Amino acid sequence: MARGTLRIFLGAAPGVGKTYEMLQEAHRLGGRGEDVAVAFAADHGRSDTRALLDGLEVIPPRRLRTRGTEFEEMDLDAVLARAPGAAVVDEYAHSNVPGSRNPKRWQDVDELLNAGINVLSTVNIQHLASLGDVVSAITDVGQAEAVPGDVPNEAVLGESVPDDVVRRADQIDLVDIPPELLRQRLSDGKIYAADNIDAALSNYFRLGNLSALRELSLLWLADRVDEGLAKYRAEHGIHGNWPARERIVVGLTGGPEGEALIRRAARILTRVSGGDLLAVHVRAADGVSSESPQALERQRRLTLDLGGSYHIVAGEDPAPALLDFARSVNATQIVVGISRRKNLAALLGGFLGGGVGTRVVRDSGDIDVHMVPHALGGQGSGVPRPRDLGRARVVVGFVLAVLVPVLLQLLLALLNPEQNIATAMLVQLSGSVAVALVGGLWPAVLAALWSSLLVNYFSTPPTGHLIISDPQNFLALFVFLGVSAAVALVVDLAARRSKEAARARAEAATLSDLTRGAAGSEDTVEALLDQARTVFQVSGTALFSRGGDGTWQRLASAGQVPEGAVRQDTGRQDTGRQGPATDGSPDGENVEEIDAGTRLVLYGRILPASDRRLLAAFGVHLAAQRERQQLMASQREMMRLAESNTMRTSILRAVSHDLRTPLAGIKLAVGALRGTGVRYTPQEEQELLATIEECSDRLDVLVGNLLDMSRITSDSASPHLRPLRWYEVLPGALHGVPPGRVRVELPANMPEVDADQGMLERVVANIVENAVKYAPDSDIVVVGAAGGLGPATLGGRPAGELRIIDHGRGVPAERVLDMFRPFQRLDDASRAAGVGLGLAVAKGFTEAMGGRLAAEPTPGGGLTMAISLPLSTGAPVDAGPGRAPLAPSPSGQDAP
Q1: Pairing between strand 57-58 and 780-785?
Q2: Would you say residue 332 lies in a domain?
Q3: Rg (Cα) of the chain, in Å, rounded?
Q4: Which of 325, 725, 770, 840 is the most exposed place for a label (fewest CB within 10 A)?
């Protein structure tokens, strides 16, 4: 089934007539015999709009109730079942009421389009995601505020739709009226109710606001039209210049004169309205050493400050690369500077076809070219010519230039006594080549001259003289000298290019490392893909990732990417592949494998081998950017967890299941004393009062412990540590446990540990109460171990250990860590079992005292909780630097 078409009516502000135009179009389509139905249309109380609903089939909306209010939403299932040829769906950016199938209405529209239904919809400019903050700044209306009136869905700035979703529409119609007319319609009561008109005119609908919103609409739509024009030109192979919009391209060489060129282009643009400024640096294969990264960075920032865009293009020859870029963006003018070459270099360049600026002017066609003079014109590049072979090799070359011809001439005297001129020249030519390989140009030239003299003296008739009688011998010597010099020149040039290439590789590797470690926040994956598309002059780029099932999914793309580019992978590796895929991997002309599961694919043309290294650098940068995004996602998740933990800590300060037991005891005792139907003896009243007092003390201890826990979690307090024996804390800890429920088996004369009595009571009580709740049919045993040299040690220090053992169902090993987190209950037990703070409080108190709380399975089934605390040395324990000791311990006893 073919996908339906989407037509959007775009407006600058509420009330311009988007819905009115949409319904008129629905009537026109219906009159033409098409099947049209209104899936959802809001008249906002406007009579003109409501009148247009007459004569159209309206599918009843769905009613949803949330927060005590009933709302109407589009009934998506009913529209799909009706399956009209065209559906009218108002408010494309609307957020659906909770309970709907999709969060956004544009997602509902996507389902209609996938079902083959054509859709007419509306959207305001402020609802585009990229312009929400801009509209908010212009109108002084917050992102969650509504424009005065009773139409919140139409005007709330928080309602947004991604720009690319709107750009995918098959047709966008701008519904535009002058701001003065819109204000007049508002004054006449045609937009909002009478009681909202004055407020609207004084706020959102100010003349300046409406003018700015109108300009935003026109510019956004112009960009969309420009994209359509570029697509049309690409599809029809149109390479000529269509000056539909003033667009100036500035050619940058990497030198400091670039800033003057950019400012000149900006001044030219001030003469027109709505033009574009594009600064382009063509990076030639042998030109890296002549460019200044610092100057280019300054020029990039200047271009962005002036509202332009900065681009880098790779090319063997700057002139055609610059012209190709200008034609690809449909430029109308090019700004280049005059050559920095000195007079002699410029003259030689003229014999070879002219400099970059000259060739740009000659081949620009219908694009205007501005040759801008600057202070560096004719002054040279300022880059010294590098030493090609090094001083040592040149010196050795000169020595060999003197010795090698003499040695070869002696060899010729032995092997060629007839002194044949051809043999002598070949032998001496080999010597000149050898000297060129070692010393470069000038030693080879010297060797050639010295060899020619030797050949002339010993082998050219008349021998023994420097006179040449035969013209052919003269020609042979001249050719010999020229070939020797040419070979030397080639060797010297190769050495220089080799050094430049090595330097370029080192710089590229350095830049790659820097960008990998410090990728800017503005370098999104999409932006990098678009930059790669521009640099390599291809039609589209895409980043693919392979899932666990072997299928390749497109993560992001830029430009024109074929729809059939994703297919099933067969597992074959194809790093650096060029041409269409034949093995099921992502299809494209150029494929760069970033890692085992990620590939960068370029479409449009096959890159030369010289560009593969630069393509690999883009792959590295993309990998770094993806890693950065993953780190940012992890950071957001950690922040979310931290905020969640802060919220839970706040709840911890106010609510605890541990408060229920003493409160219940107090309430029962007070209720009994206040009852009039029963008379109590004085002894019974004293027992009830004692119960109230005991529970109040217990409640005071619990509240104090909870407050102390809050302070400990914020690292702002320290427990009161003192030498303490385990049996001293058990009576208070087991006070609320039913008699006979816990069996205590402590060895005699257990050593003292350093602990806070109130905290330790709370630790033991929480663990025991937890065991009673989750092991109701098991006996609970409290046993002790002395520690010392056994396994119970803390950081190498002997520790005492108290073990609380139950034989219940236990806890799975994978849930042990979760068990100590706040607000966790085993198997989502009911709230009657508490809110899941007991073990978290116990662990926090134990660690605050310098101890450890661990859980291990009980042999035979169940759970054993081990509390380990350092054995006491008898010396006072310092609370720690920067920590204030707690007030008297929660047990009510002062620390010694």
Answers
A1: unpaired
A2: yes
A3: 43
A4: 725
- How distant, in Å, are the alpha carbons of 198, 234, 513, 553, 645 from that of 632? 46, 37, 20, 22, 20
| One domain for residues 223 and 74 | yes
What is the distance between the alpha carbons of residues 611 and 494, in angstroms, rounded to a whole number? 20
Rounded CA separation 267/377 (Å): 21
Residue whose token pair is 């893909």 = 529
**557-to-47, 524, 528, 582, 605 alpha-carbon distances in Å:** 46, 12, 10, 22, 16
Say whether both 193 and 253 belong to one domain.
no
Residue that terminates a domain, selected from 198, 232, 266: 232
Nearest to 511 by CA among 303, 291, 261: 291
350's CB contacts (< 8 A; 6+ apart) are 358
Does residue 513 form part of some domain?
no
Coil, helix or strand at residue 304: helix
* pLDDT value, residue 458: 79
Q: Are residues 135 and 188 in the same domain?
A: yes
CA distance 623 to 516: 8
Cβ atoms of 277 and 265 closer than 8 Å: yes
Buried b (16+ CB within 10 A) or exposed e, 136-147: bebbebeeebbb
| Residue 109: both structure tokens together | 């529209």
Q: CA 868, CA 159: separation in Å to the nearest integer?
A: 56
Q: Reply yes or no: is the peptide bond before residue 580 cis, omega within 30 of 0.
A: no
- Give the residue from 37, 220, 16, 11 showing the smallest Cα distance to 120: 37
Contacts of 701 (CB under 8 A, 6+ apart): 758, 761, 762, 890, 891, 892
DSSP string, 777-845: TS-EEEEEE--TTSS-EETTEEEEEEEEEE-SS---GGGHHHHTSTT--GGG--GGG-SS-HHHHHHHH
Sequence-ordered list of residues with C-beta below 8 angstroms from that of 113, at least 6 positions apart, any chain: 3, 4, 5, 6, 119
Which domain-ending residue is among 208, 232, 256?
Answer: 232
739 shares its domain with 879? yes
Q: Do residues 217 and 339 both lie within one domain?
A: no
Bridge partners of residue 64, in order along the sequence: 71
Residues 760 and 852 both lie in one domain: yes
Cα–Cα distance, 512 to 616 (Å, whole number): 10
Alpha helices in 371-470 (DSSP H): 391-415, 421-439, 441-459
CA 404-409-412 angle, to 5 degrees, is 125
The torsion defined by the Cα of 323, 329, 332 and 335, in degrees rounded to 10, comes to -50
Query: β-pairing, 753-755 with 793-794?
Result: unpaired
Is residue 505 one of the residues assigned to a domain?
no
> What are the residues whose beta carbons fall under 8 Å from the beta carbon of 397, sequence distance 6 or more?
389, 435, 436, 438, 439, 440, 442, 443, 444
- 508 φ/ψ angles, rounded to the nearest 5 degrees: -65, -40
Q: What is the pLDDT of residues 802-843, one digit of tens each?
A: 999 998 888 887 778 777 766 555 654 444 444 456 787 788
pLDDT beyond 70 at 666: yes
Handedness of CA 680, 684, 686, 690 (dihedral sign): negative
Note whether 220 and 259 are same-domain residues: no
8 A C-beta contact, residue 623 and residue 543: no
Helix (H, G, I), strand (E, B) or coil at 414: helix
- Amino acid, res. 119: V
Q: Is the pTM of this model over 0.70?
A: no
* Residues pairing with 629 in the sheet: none
- pLDDT greater than 90 at residue 332: no
Instruction: Identify the pLDDT of residue 28.
Output: 92
Instruction: State the Cα–Cα distance between residues 666 and 674, nearest whole angstrom.
Output: 12
Q: Which of 58-62, 252-256, 311-315, 562-566 has the highest mean pLDDT?
A: 58-62
Domain count, the chain: 5
CATH of the domain at 827: 3.30.565.10
pLDDT at 587: 58
Residue 311: domain span: 247-372
Same domain, 196 and 288: no
